[in-house]
Structure formats: C-alpha cells, structure tokens
Amino acid sequence: MNDYSSLLIDVEIYCKEHIIGRGIEYFNKQTVRKVEFSGHYIHANVSGSYASDYKVVIDVEDFTNSICSCPYDDYCKHIIAVIYTVQNYPQVEKEMDSEASIEQVELEELLLTQDKEYLIQLIYELVKNDDQKLQLLQKLHRNNK
Ligand SMILES: [Zn+2]
C-alpha cells in the first residue's frame, strides 16, 4: 500500500499557509469524492463553492505536476483537501486497489476449502500471542451468547 505522507511534506513546502488551512477545512467538510488511483496519479472530484465539481489530479511522484480545474492559479485548497483525504482514509485506496481485492478473494476461497480443525488451529496460532485479537475473540464469543 502506498504511503502519501511525503505529499503532506510537499504541501508544507509548496502551498501557502492560509491555503493549507482552507484545504484542511475542505477535507473536514468531506468535499472530496470519487477518488481514483491510477499509476502514480490520484484523480478526485472536489465539490466547490459553486455548483460544479473541480477535478483534481495529484502526481504522487512529483507534487509540482499536480493540477486542479479551478481558477486559482497556484496549488489550491482542492489539491490539499484530496491529499489529506487519501492520507487519512487509507481504506479508500484499499477498496480501489484491485490487486488487494484479488488477494482477498483468494484468501476467502482458501479458507472456505479448509476443514474446521485446520481453521481452529490457524486461529489459535494467529491469536495466541496477540492480546488485542484475544480480546476481540472473547468479545465476539460474549456477543454470540
Ligand atoms: Zn482547485
């Protein structure tokens, strides 16, 4: 999975402070929609103050190539809002990442074809040294009663 924290550093370097503030406001208002990952580009729509959405393209490898369709001719709040959104919602990427979902399907198939004893052993091995997972199992057990 990609880590977009370097983009946050680019934002600090290239964007004006008050624009960063506006971008974070936009991120908090969840104005970013339709995030798509394609190669080292992130495409997203950001709803603006007016009716139409602005289209943002972020270049993950070179932030300075990032563009937005809004009239502001510097790195704008929409670009910043998209970067904060992908950085703070890594599950967005997970859903979009087709490779990850193929692996998940394979795992499901694999588990479905195993017998119960094997699965019990597997779960036991996975949780025995992990307090957090043990607690989760106990909680599930209590909820099932
Ligand atoms: Zn913009």
How are the SSEs ordered, and which strands pair?
Blueprint: H1 5-14, H2 17-28, E1 32-38, E2 41-47, E3 53-59, E4 67-68, H3 77-88, H4 90-96, H5 98-112, H6 116-127, H7 131-144
Antiparallel strand pairs: 1-2, 2-3, 3-4
Helix pairs in contact: 1-3, 2-3
The structure holds zinc ion (ZN).
Q: Major sheet, described briefly?
A: 4 strands, antiparallel
Overall number of domains = 2
Total beta strands: 4
- Mean residue pLDDT: 84
Enumerate the spans where pLDDT stays under 50 for 5 or more consecutive residues: none
Organism: Bacillus seohaeanensis
Keywords: Metal-binding, Zinc, Zinc-finger
Domain SWIM-type: 54-87
Pfam family, one: SWIM
Summarize the entry for a quick read:
Keywords: Metal-binding, Zinc, Zinc-finger. The protein is of the alpha+beta class.
